[in-house]
Design goal:
27 strands, 29 helices, 730 residues, alpha/beta, single chain, eight-stranded mixed beta sheet, disordered C terminus, nine-stranded mixed beta sheet, globular
């Protein structure tokens, strides 16, 4: 458990070495067709862990084509096995493993690592050195030959030095070589810029501060980026030569494809850290290195370097994932045969695909899962019938729901042929027990008919809206997951006692309850126990990237600056319209830009000449509009709904590099260094003025960098690891 003291022990070399009080340890091994090597890794753990205290072992398998999973279960029956169902990449696998090791320090291992006895204890002691966030061992080949695993920070000059002098010769001169070659450096413990990522121990404090690895690299450079990021955040990378590991390795040096990917990812990392101009310089330097090797070696000996040159010339923004090439399932072909043997997913959403913002978590999670599972999303069945006097815009709401029902069942995303959306016809009279039963029968019959037609006979069912509990209660399923994104009984228009009873049923009977609010999770722990799981929101960082002014929509460019902006639903139970009116009135030289559907009349705001309400805009265009903001705002009301919220738009704002001003709520505690938080209307206006005058609390690139690892695909992998018990032998 976090904070537990691991007792001292005597290692095999006869020295007394006490482990300082640390969080529990987890060992995460990512496999991909690793059957020939993973057993040796697992069998080395018993001796390697001697004296280091109890440890969880988590093996994350990226859809191995061989018998890797069977060998893991035979060699380590106590290990937790997570099957991602796809070749998700090394970083995604590590992230899934870290998610299954909540509260632990994490030792990340390649499956071809063999740890020496007592080595983990030594790494844990190294991690206890003040300021250390990552500890790495001494790596050797099977023959005992030293692996040069220590590295200096990558620079264009060092890449040029390696091109002209060779890696080993350049490494003798610190400014000219990235590779550390001095034998003395491998004989003493010290801090380094980064190390090759075959084996590294990461502290829980470092993991919590940095978040997940960046999955866009797929393979290579992800550990470099993470360790450099750790150093910049104040967590040193420490090399411990007494901890020894044998690294079999060698695949990169024999595979032209992997060599090319490694070269291109060096360029991608430099581009992301320092911008495109310096990225292009690194591209030229790395390309020169490969060209020199082609000329020097010629013939077949230069094949991997020619492959790297081709990759650098025609380099994509990011590496394609397996299956993303033209004509593959990701481009509209049939589903992979493997998908037919895996459980499908049935999601009862709290939103409607056809008229709500598609950035909502249930849509994003299901889209990511649909890359490797069949998914049926059931649009919202509501929480009450809209009624005059209690609901706003009644006719409009009824009309759009009927239009949604008329869409029947569709595959809205060409690139995801396994992703289906349906709109059942509900009778949302939830205040009447009889009407509830009739509605449940009606909706269930429609959903079951579509599920059977799609072959979803025993799916994982995820419920976001509590009124679906009556529908799903008797349905056959592999697992029931309650996506507790909000406390819906706090919704002003809901029949509170009825919705509370439905929420309680889901909280008590679901196999897993997912939370995005730690406040709400803590309040309901009595009902959920160890079935509760914090699954933070993700963000589509490829979509939410800053657009230059020339790519921003014409209507935002026509609005004079400076612009204080908001995008999202303008709901009267979420947004503080009084505060918006104060911004308009007290900052007359500022343009207040509001983008989103509104549930209230907007005349009180649009009467101000500096208010520009643009209405609903498609999800595809939102980053372009957000790129035109000078300040992004979250002007929330102070109510129970907001208290338990964790708005997705916060990560979207940060991914755009926007300075953010927000009213206060609990989940912002983790963003205090990136967001200006205001406890009152006066302070909110002061924070907006300060941001317009001084900019954000951190540079735009830092704000974006802070959320780059929070992909929806990694969140989906965590969800699948929870929901599919067949992935866990226990």
């Amino acid at each position: 458990m976090t904070g537990a003291t691991i007792p001292p022990s005597r290692t095999g070399n006869g020295s007394d070495m006490a482990v300082p009080a640390r969080p529990q340890l987890a060992v995460v091994i990512v496999t991909y067709s690793s059957g020939q090597v993973v057993e040796g890794c697992l069998r080395s753990l018993d001796a390697a862990l001697a004296g280091a205290g109890p440890a969880r072992v988590v093996v994350v398998d990226n859809a191995s084509a061989d018998d890797t999973v069977e060998r893991v279960r035979e060699a380590a029956p106590e290990a937790k096995v997570i099957q991602t169902g796809r070749n998700a990449g090394f970083a995604a696998g590590v992230n899934a493993g870290i998610a299954a090791a909540d509260g632990c320090d994490v030792l990340v291992l390649n499956p071809d690592i063999r740890l020496a006895p007592g080595s983990v204890l030594l790494l844990r002691q190294a991690l206890a050195v003040p300021g250390t966030g990552i500890a790495a061992p001494h790596l050797t080949a099977e023959t005992g030959e030293l692996h040069l695993s220590l590295r200096r920070r990558p620079t264009v000059l060092r890449a040029l030095g390696e091109a002209l002098l060779g890696g080993h010769r350049a490494g003798r001169f610190h400014p000219l070589g990235e590779l550390v070659v001095e034998p003395a450096a491998y004989g003493r413990p010290h801090t380094v810029d980064w190390v090759t990522g075959a084996a590294w121990l990461v502290s829980r404090a470092c993991l919590d501060a940095l978040g997940p690895l960046d999955e866009r690299y797929f393979l290579y450079s992800e550990e470099t980026e993470y360790m450099l990021r750790a150093g910049e955040a104040g967590f040193a990378v420490r090399y411990e030569p007494r901890a020894v590991a044998v690294h079999l390795g060698g695949e990169q040096s024999t595979s032209s494809r992997l060599w090319a990917l490694s070269a291109a990812n060096r360029v991608r990392m430099h581009r992301e850290r320092y911008g495109r101009p310096r990225g292009q310089l690194m591209r030229l330097a790395v390309g020169l290195n490969e060209l020199v090797r082609v000329v020097a070696r010629g013939g077949a000996g230069g094949s991997r370097h020619r492959a790297a040159l081709r990759e650098l010339v025609a380099m994509r923004e990011w590496p394609p994932r397996p299956g993303e090439e033209a004509g593959s399932p990701a481009h509209g072909a049939t589903l992979p045969a493997r998908q037919a043997d895996l459980p499908g997913y049935l999601c009862f959403s709290a939103q409607d695909w056809w008229y709500h913002n598609r950035a909502h978590s249930d849509f994003q999670l299901m889209r990511s899962i649909a890359a490797h599972r069949k998914v049926l999303v059931v649009n919202s069945i509501g929480m009450r019938m809209p009624t005059p006097g209690r609901s706003t815009q009644v006719l409009r709401r009824v009309g759009r729901k009927l239009r949604s029902v008329a869409m029947l069942v569709r595959r809205p995303l060409r690139e995801l042929p396994g992703f289906y959306v349906m709109s059942p016809l509900p009778l949302p009279f939830y205040g009447s027990p009889l009407a509830r039963r009739v509605n449940a029968l009606l909706v269930r019959a429609q959903v079951l008919a579509v599920s059977r037609a799609l072959g979803l006979h025993r799916p994982v069912i995820m419920v976001t809206i509590p009124t679906a509990w009556d529908v799903v209660r008797p349905m056959r399923r592999q697992a029931l997951v309650f996506n507790r994104s909000d406390r819906h009984s706090s919704f002003p228009e809901s029949d509170r006692p009825t919705i509370e009873a439905l929420e309680r049923g889901l909280l008590e009977r679901s196999d897993h309850v997912l939370y995005v609010s730690t406040a709400l999770m803590d309040e309901e722990r009595r009902m959920t126990g160890d079935r509760a799981y914090f699954l933070d929101h993700g963000v589509d960082t490829d979509h939410f990237r800053r657009r230059p002014e020339s790519e921003q929509p014409a209507d935002i460019r026509a609005i004079p600056g400076p612009r204080v902006g908001f995008f999202g639903a303008l709901d009267d139970y979420l947004v503080d319209f009084d505060l918006l009116e104060r911004i308009a009135g007290e900052l007359p030289d500022v343009s207040l830009v509001l983008i989103g559907d509104a549930t209230v009349p907007m005349e009180r705001l649009t009467r101000h000449p500096n208010v520009h309400w643009l209405g609903f805009r498609p999800y595809e265009t939102i980053p372009g509009y957000g790129s035109g903001f000078d300040v992004a705002i979250m002007p929330w009301l102070d109510n129970p709904w907001i208290k338990h919220s964790n708005p997705i738009k916060l990560k979207e704002y940060l991914a755009l590099g926007l300075p953010v001003v927000s009213t206060d709520f609990q989940e912002l505690v983790n963003y205090a260094d990136r967001v200006r938080i205001a406890a009152s209307g006066d302070l909110f206006l002061d924070a907006v003025r300060a941001t317009l005058r001084e900019g954000g609390p951190r540079p735009a690139d830092d704000l974006r960098g802070s959320v780059l690892g929070a992909s929806w695909s990694s969140r989906a992998a965590q969800l699948m690891a929870l929901a599919e018990p067949s992935s866990d032998p226990r």
